[in-house]
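Lecture notes, continued. The same structure-token format from the folding unit now serves as the input rather than the output. Read the line below as a description of shape only.
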């Protein structure tokens, strides 16, 4: 059905229809020329042009047009390759030298200085350490105090003494510090 419509439309728009109008112009001259023009219209030249021309009509779409390919979704094998600049190799490599590690005990033990506020327990002192640090956002200096329970083996420290305590293994539920030295005795 569609092929018949195409053929009809092609025959309507074919160049054979144009010479049919031409004899009207020629009719002024003579009847012989009109007869010759009619013989030429069904001739092979017009039919050959129709046969060679494709049967597509501009109004009908036989196949939908493919959209242009997006540059975003190109397969990796078809993508453009940008060459990377080559780095010059180093002339000579420096030899790797290892510095000897200093010999010390495992880990690094923290040290704090504070004032003894209580020595009531046996072999135990309570040391108050003042901590000053700046606030992370507002940069204001904040003073806080922290109390540590420390082990004092000889009960040498008294209330008011300034002492240095060192971090150690857990000695009891609350004691994780021990007395290193008495810096200053209380008066």
């Amino acid at each position: 059905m569609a092929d018949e419509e195409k053929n009809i439309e092609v025959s309507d728009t074919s160049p054979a229809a144009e010479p049919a109008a031409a004899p009207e112009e020629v009719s002024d001259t003579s009847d012989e020329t009109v007869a010759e023009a009619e013989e030429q219209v069904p001739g092979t030249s017009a039919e050959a042009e129709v046969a060679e021309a494709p049967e597509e009509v501009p109004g009908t779409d036989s196949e939908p047009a493919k959209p242009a390919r997006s540059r975003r979704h190109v397969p990796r094998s078809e993508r453009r390759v940008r060459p990377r600049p080559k780095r010059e190799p180093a002339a000579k490599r420096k030899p790797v030298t290892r510095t000897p590690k200093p010999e010390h005990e495992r880990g690094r033990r923290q040290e704090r200085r504070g004032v003894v506020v209580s020595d009531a327990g046996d072999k135990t002192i309570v040391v108050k350490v003042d901590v000053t640090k700046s606030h992370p956002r507002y940069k204001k200096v904040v003073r806080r105090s922290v109390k540590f329970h420390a082990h004092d083996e000889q009960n040498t420290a008294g209330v008011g003494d300034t002492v240095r305590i060192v971090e150690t293994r857990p000695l009891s539920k609350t004691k994780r510090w021990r007395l290193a030295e008495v810096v200053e005795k209380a008066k």
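Point for the exam: Residues 20-29 have pLDDT under 50 and may be disordered.
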